[in-house]
Amino acid sequence: MEVTKNLGGGSLIGVPIFYRNGENYGTLCGLDLNPYRYTEDHIDLFKAMANLLGNVLELERANREIETLSVPIVPISDEVAILPIVGDVNEVRTERIMEIALSESANKSLDYLIFDLSGLINIHANSAMNLLKIGQSLKLIGVQMIVTGIRPDLALKAVQSHTDFDEIVVQSNLKQALNWIGYKLVKE
């Protein structure tokens, strides 16, 4: 091959890496400056490694999809959306929430983003501080963050971590948040 010629000889083995759907990710290569004759065992080993890498890449892709689904932004109107936070919130998920909240708020030209924490199981110590950072970041792009559904144990964690929620509007529930914005729920 040209690459081995440019190195003055040697040997090269290459095996494609595929996703499950057949899409090619790239190639797993082995290169040596010395000429080497690869056996079937070497080729089988490279194929197994490429298959393993394909599986790891597939898991990474699936994990990204799950992360996206774990941060669903639900539009209420053109200017208002709800972000229900369900489950456990750690540092990694908080970062993902921030990324999606900022990008989706800007893309949808939102004025208000309601974070509903009523489905939150556990929040890690720094995540309460990061919620405040998300609120500050949203404010910089012109979006008002409103937090609803804070349970007593969550309130205690926020107070213990000395998190200052003065810049964020906090309402007990979704109905109160919508009323604060100026929406009235009317039963017909």
UniProtKB/TrEMBL annotation:
**Organism's domain of life?**
Bacteria
Return the InterPro entries for the record: Bact_StressResp_Reg (IPR051932), GAF (IPR003018), GAF-like_dom_sf (IPR029016), STAS_dom (IPR002645), STAS_dom_sf (IPR036513)
The STAS domain sits at 70-181
PANTHER family in the cross-refs: BLUE-LIGHT PHOTORECEPTOR, RSBT ANTAGONIST PROTEIN RSBS-RELATED
- What is the official name of this protein in its record? STAS domain-containing protein
